[in-house]
DNA sequence: GCTGGCAATCGGTATCATCGAGTGCCAGCG
DNA sequence: CGCTGGCACTCGATGATACCGATTGCCAGC
């Protein structure tokens, strides 16, 4: 463990590096930091911190830069732990959720944008899964002679739709029969694992019913976890190397990578993942700050992605507040 | 108008500049181009082309770069006008549409990715509007004591949903009555402008019916034109200035800008917009190649966005083929 | 009207010296 | 014993300089 002075110096280095993106010199720390010691002393301490892996040194005559380990210590020992949001920002969040209404999709999309604005990072918002939801309504609608759309409304307000391509042509009457049969027997049961449905006494209708049930059950599981990305363009200003920008943006376009990134972070109970800590190689220069939110039916996640030298207190506070208000909003409805 | 030799020189300059991104020298044109003239002659012609605004000159001892006007001439006088796609790429397109099935949203999303892969540009795919679609099914589902979800299935297979927040609590029976009433009277009419519905004799039910009709009509018009962006990350490699990358990406995040960009291009019947031709200032260094596609109900657009020095024949061919196959796919279903 | 020849232009690169912000180390001080 | 001031040393950044080479513009001649 680091003694208090080393910790203070490390904190000062990280703080200044986050602000300036320049290697931090001992002189600056001695002056800016509130510890009353000479630059020489700071230098000695810095040398130790470097030996222990908290800092690095681009070249001899340069200041220090934090390593991932350095950032990790910093976020684990913040003096202002969750730190509330600045009033102006708090107000923005309140306004956002007061104004927001209507479809879940739009809400989540806009929330991503909000979070990105608040943190100057790219924002990621996953949509809650529907595994735990129950069916409020099931309906089949004929679109063509062999194409039927299965539409289900879930208890959480989501609408699941699946196109069924049938093997043979069916009459409108049979579609209606199957639809009514499904509605009668499935309403109220969970989407993921709904109860058996008795036969209607008609093979064709039964076939359609079975196919619809299969499609809905599939939708519950295999549907690619939806994730909304906001403010990806900010990544263009956060990195020097255009090549890094490209890689990071490319990752953000791969939904499943983003989703598993968020899920992993949450599974390991890490609200903050720094640099190499999350396993995604191209994001080695990035940190991720996440928070779960609750919808009543199933858990989901909000988070931001930024450079390792992002403003952690700000990001943590913003993510926390947004996830909290989002939970509130979704549970009251 | 340009005489044939000037045109050939201009073409050669544009072609080489697109490949190399370097100012093109008279010597290269004389050598590479199939015209049997000396560099000096080419120089003289180039000087004229510059005076007429087709080329520019970074500095005295540098080669020439095409202006927007130069590119415009190039695309308007392509020797290989629409030029079919390379076989390998053609195959990719076929595979894509053969494999693609299921929801329209996923199809369009994946098509954006395909188009981006084919052209190395960012791809844009708008979803068809629902103004012309008719209602196949309308249904109300109670989600809470004062919250009702209106779900409509359209003739084009789309599902429109709107949350209704009621002024007073309603019974399940009334919701069912309103739902049945709507289904009975609206099925078959156009979404945008559906016929009047007679009273049910119950004020509360009538209110709900009216509110649902209003919400659906609104959805037809005000629903923000959905647009799918694919491969935005490619823009990171296409520009030198990180600041340009940022601006372009930021534009791509603003759906309504993208939508109006596409619509404007199409309205003016310009399949290719070069540099400043489309009015969006931050995209001055970009070109847009679009093509309409047909869904049967209403027109929509696919397009790509790339640097002005993009591969126009390739982009035009890819966009054309994809829009054509997309139309086919959507009209057969 | 085309061409070869030639001076002039100008960015890019390499070289070099210089500057200054930093560090590392050491001797001395409290 | 820990802290400090002093000092030599390091090394990137900056700027001046020269030079090279690619390229143009122009002109005289074919």
Question: What labels describe this entry?
Answer:
48% helix, alpha+beta, homodimer, DNA-binding, five-stranded antiparallel sheet
Structural features, described:
The structure is a homodimer of 333-residue chains. With 333 residues, chain A is of the alpha+beta class. Helix content of chain A is 48%, strand content 17%. In chain A, the strands form three sheets. In chain A, strands 7-3-10-9-8 form a five-stranded antiparallel β-sheet, sandwiched between helices. The first copy, chain A, has a three-stranded antiparallel β-sheet with strand order 4-5-6. In chain A, helix 1 crosses helix 4, helix 5 runs parallel beside helix 12 and helix 6 packs antiparallel against helix 12. The first copy, chain A, is elongated and about 90 Å long. The interface between A and B is large, with 38 and 38 residues. The structure holds a DNA duplex (30 and 30 nucleotides).
Number of strands of chain A: 10
Chain oligomer state: homodimer
Radius of gyration of chain A: 26 Å
Largest sheet of chain A: 5 strands, antiparallel
Write the layout of secondary structure elements.
The structure is a homodimer of 333-residue chains.
Chain A: H1 4-20, H2 26-32, H3 39-51, E1 55-56, E2 65-66, H4 68-76, H5 87-99, H6 104-119, E3 122-126, E4 135-142, E5 147-154, E6 159-165, H7 172-186, H8 203-222, E7 227-230, H9 235-238, H10 242-252, H11 255-267, E8 272-274, E9 286-294, E10 299-307, H12 312-332
Antiparallel strand pairs in A: 1-2, 3-7, 3-10, 4-5, 5-6, 8-9, 9-10
Helix pairs in contact in A: 1-3, 1-4, 2-3, 5-6, 5-12, 6-12, 7-8
The structure holds a DNA duplex (30 and 30 nucleotides).
């Amino acid at each position: 463990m680091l003694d208090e002075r080393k910790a203070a110096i490390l904190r000062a280095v990280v703080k200044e590096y986050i602000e300036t993106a320049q290697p931090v010199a001992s002189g600056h720390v001695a002056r800016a930091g509130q510890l009353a010691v000479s630059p020489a002393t700071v230098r000695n301490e810095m040398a130790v911190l470097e030996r222990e892996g908290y800092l690095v040194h681009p070249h001899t005559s340069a200041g220090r830069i934090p390593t991932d380990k350095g950032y990790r210590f910093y976020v684990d020992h913040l003096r202002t732990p969750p730190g509330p949001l600045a009033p102006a920002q708090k107000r923005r969040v309140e306004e956002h959720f007061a104004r927001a209404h209507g479809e879940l999709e739009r809400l989540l999309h806009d929330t991503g944008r909000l979070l990105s604005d608040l943190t100057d990072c790219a924002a990621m918002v996953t949509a809650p899964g529907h595994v735990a939801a129950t069916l409020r309504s099931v309906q089949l609608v004929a679109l063509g002679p062999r194409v039927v759309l299965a539409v289900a409304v879930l208890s959480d307000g989501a609408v699941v739709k699946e196109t069924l391509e049938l093997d043979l042509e069916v009459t409108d009457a049979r579609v209606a029969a199957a639809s009514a049969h499904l509605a009668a027997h499935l309403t109220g049961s969970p989407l993921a694992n709904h109860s058996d449905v008795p036969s209607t006494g008609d093979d064709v209708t039964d076939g359609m019913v079975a196919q619809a049930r299969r499609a809905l059950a599939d939708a519950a599981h295999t549907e690619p976890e939806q994730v909304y990305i906001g403010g990806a363009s900010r990544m263009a200003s956060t990195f020097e190397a255009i090549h890094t920008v490209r890689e990071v943006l490319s990752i953000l376009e791969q939904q499943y990578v983003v989703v598993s990134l968020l899920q992993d972070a949450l599974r390991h109970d890490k609200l903050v993942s720094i640099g190499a800590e999350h396993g995604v190689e191209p994001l080695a220069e990035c940190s991720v700050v996440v928070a779960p939110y609750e919808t009543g039916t199933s858990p989901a996640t909000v988070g931001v992605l930024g450079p390792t030298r992002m403003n952690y207190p700000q990001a943590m506070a913003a993510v926390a507040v947004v996830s909290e208000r989002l939970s509130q909003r979704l549970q009251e409805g």
